[in-house]
Amino acid sequence: MARSIAMPRPPEAVTAAVARYGPLVVLALAGIALIVAEFLTLREIVAVTVVPEGGRTTGGAHHGYAMGLIGLVSLPMSYGAVLGGSRPAAAALAVLGALGLAIAAIFDLPSLNETGLIGRTYDLAEANPGPGFWVEVIAAMMLLAGGLMLLRSRTVAAREESAARRSERRARREADAEAEPVTPER
Asked: I want to staple 84 with a disulfide (CB 3.0 to 4.6 A). Which of 52, 80, 109, 150 is the partner?
């Protein structure tokens, strides 16, 4: 008799816990990543083989720690949207993610290839995006996508609850109408 090498199915409690807390973990990691990205290298200017003095720029120094603030605000919003089921918190997550992407596109992206004074001093200087840029873009996209998905799921759930309440009220009115005795008019 041949035995299956497939992994056993996880218990229902584990599956339920992953479904309940998984989005919170992902969104919290995205918020923490935005905070960490402020201290990572956003842009690095290399002159031949070395990075000269002032050739490394962090995200926080470039845009005034705005992404760190977005990441910090996203943490309680993540908790409220996932565990509290709050639609305004889910919408706030989507807005925070869009704001993070806008900051990356408006402030960071145009300056990634600028060599500035170092480029005028060294002919072979070139600027490249650092890991901080990519971390902040991916984290902001995760916040935007997660907020939109939570908002969509909460909206669908609210519509279903509203429809159930409506049908319950309708059934109760019909039952009350049938229970009332009809009095003949004289």
From this structure: 80
Give residues with Cβ within 8 angstroms of 150, minimum separation 6: 23, 81, 82, 90, 93
Give dist(CA 86, CA 75) in Å, integer.
Answer: 14
Q: In sequence order, what E strands does 71-153 have? A: 125-129
Distances (CA, A) of 36 to 68, 139, 167: 7, 10, 49
Query: 38: Cβ–Cβ under 8 A, 6 or more apart, which residues?
Result: 58, 59, 60, 65, 67, 68, 71, 132, 136
Angle at 65 between CA 44 and CA 150, to 5 degrees: 105
Q: Say if CB 45 and CB 127 are below 8 A apart.
A: yes
CA–CA gap between residue 29 and residue 145 (Å, rounded): 14
- Residues 43-91: tens digit of each pLDDT: 888 877 777 787 788 888 888 899 999 999 999 999 999 999 899 999 9
Task: Please tell me the distance from the alpha carbon of residue 96 to that of residue 85, in angstroms, as a whole number.
Answer: 18
pTM of the full predicted structure?
A: 0.79
Q: Which long-range contacts (CB under 8 A, 24 or more apart) does 3-12 make?
A: none
**Dihedral sign (CA 133, 24, 20, 158):** negative
pLDDT at 28: 96
Name residue 46's beta-bridge partners.
126
